[in-house]
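Supplementary Methods, section 5.1.

A reviewer requested that the exact input to the structure prediction be made available. We therefore reproduce it here, unchanged from the version used in the analyses.
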Amino acid sequence: MDNEFPKILQKKDERPEAIALLQNIKAHLAELEALLEKTNGHWGMEDKIYRFYHQSLKVFGIQDYTDKLVKALQDLHPAPERGFHEMFARILAEGTGKEFSMSDNDHWVESTRSLLEAFFHARYFLEMVIKYGNKFKNLDAPPNLLPSGWASVLYLYRMR
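The structure derived from this sequence is encoded token-by-token as follows.
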């Protein structure tokens, strides 16, 4: 195993689904990094968060970014029939598929905060996938003892 990791981290997670997840991540790192860069760009997070505070219906466009993030995460799933962690699935259900209504202006925060929450959770998971995909790039299997970010990725894919 890679000598850059302390001995305690050198024990491998030999589960086939964990190995498949890591391999999927490593195979798509360049695409995932490009998606994160676009998401973090001016017309992504920067503009959409501004639109929330500006009380502009354009904040609803953040759902497009959330959908792209979720699609990228789904494409990595070694067992897609299992779906995502139920809490993440609930956050997505509450924060996607919404259309602007004039009545949203009367209770703006309540109407739009879930859009941002879904986006932030999806973005967080993409960031963790990229971080640990890069960190474990030279490993053939993920370590058995887990940093918090990798552990959360395993929760996302219902492997923990």
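The two ends are 23 Å apart (CA to CA). These observations are discussed further in the main text.
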